Amino acid sequence: MISLMLRTDSFRDTGETDPDGAPVREFVPARREPIDLLDLTPRARTLAEAIHQAQRHPGPMGPAEIMLECDRTTAEVYPRQEGEAAAYGPREREHERARRHYVRSVLRSASEMSGAEYLEREARSWPMDWYVVGARGLDPVPSFEAGRGDRVYTHDTAREALRLSLRAWDLLTHAKHLPAPDRWAHGRPHWYPATIDAYRTREVELWPVSKVAEQLGYEGKSSASAARAQLGRWGLLAVGRETGRSGESLYAADQVEALQAHRPGRGRRGAARIDGKFAPSSP
User: Fold this and answer.
1) CA distance 215 to 120
2) CA angle 115, 8, 125 (to 5 degrees)
3) What kind and span of H or E run contains 133?
4) What is the pLDDT of residue 281?
5) Which tens digits make up the pLDDT trace of 229-274?
């Protein structure tokens, strides 16, 4: 258990109004907050330890000088312009692991977010291959190695990795088509890289828009347009395109089927559609 100064001064509404009808706000001073390190994921634990280290030994810029390190080298992270190396010579330590300062976002004292939630959010705010070392100029924090190895996808990074819109992600999650989170940390879902990679590299049939229209029951001249409109409502993005100038956009068949199966308000299920409308029933 450690005590951290995470919050800054702020104001909050009291729910009352003054004689002029204006809302009354009260001042909430910054305060220290107890943090149980065992209640945090390794990556968030390294951040908590680094903040504690920096607050105990503040540098020239105060207790905010936290250092991050990257798997890539300085030359890879900060490439030089063509001819710059020839003009100025090699940079110092450019083949060592890149480092940079971390500037954390503000947590207001009136915020209802807990310190643990804040640390978990902040610990996932930089790319996966960056990790906390410690306060600038000091030894690595005790959880440095564990934090460096704690690499997971969050809701946003998993969605980006799978190239899904927010709408499609929500609908496919509701349809139970996407992989379930491997763990939860203070209300935040995490997926291991292997889980996301397995879904991303799954064997899947790709359907052109004309096939999607057929699957959805659209017929007629505007069937392809109706299918595109439905795909747009789902937020489903094309994953490829057929070759040739007249090639159609391609969509993951299993995603289309999952969304169709959980499509609300489908009316007469299985009925064919002509120009986006249900075909007349047989007498």
Assistant:
1) 43
2) 50
3) strand 130-135
4) 46
5) 999 999 999 888 877 777 888 999 999 999 998 876 654 444 545 4
**CA-to-CA distance for 8 and 2, rounded, in angstroms?**
18
d(CA 238, CA 231): 9
Dist CA 67 CA 237 (whole Å): 38
Rounded CA separation 25/13 (Å): 4
What angle, rounded to 10 degrees, do the helices at 166-174 and 223-234 form? 90
How much is the pTM? 0.76
CB 91 within 8 A of CB 75: yes
Contact 27, 9 (CB under 8 A): yes
Residue 268: predicted pLDDT? 44
Q: Are 217 and 250 in contact (CB under 8 A)?
A: no
- Residue 177 CA: distances (Å) to CA of 147, 174, 201, 208: 30, 8, 15, 21
Note the residue count of the chain: 283
**One-letter amino acid identity for 20?**
D
Check: CB of residue 66 under 8 Å from CB of residue 57: no
Residue ranges of the chain with per-residue pLDDT less than 50:
267-270, 272, 274-276, 278, 281-283
Within 10 angstroms of residue 175's Cβ, the number of other Cβ atoms is: 16
Q: Which two tokens stand for residue 212?
A: 């999607």
Whole-number pLDDT of residue 180: 94
Q: Name residues whose C-beta falls within 8 Å of residue 148's C-beta, 6 or more positions apart in sequence.
A: 46, 69, 131
Nearest Cα neighbor of 126 from 164, 159, 99 is 99
**What are residue 230's phi and psi, to 5 degrees?**
-65, -40
Contacts of 207 (CB under 8 A, 6+ apart): 215, 250, 251, 252, 253, 256
Q: In which element (H, E) is residue 167 found?
A: helix 166-174
Residue 47: φ, ψ to 5°: -65, -45
Give the Cα separation of 283 and 279 in Å (integer). 12
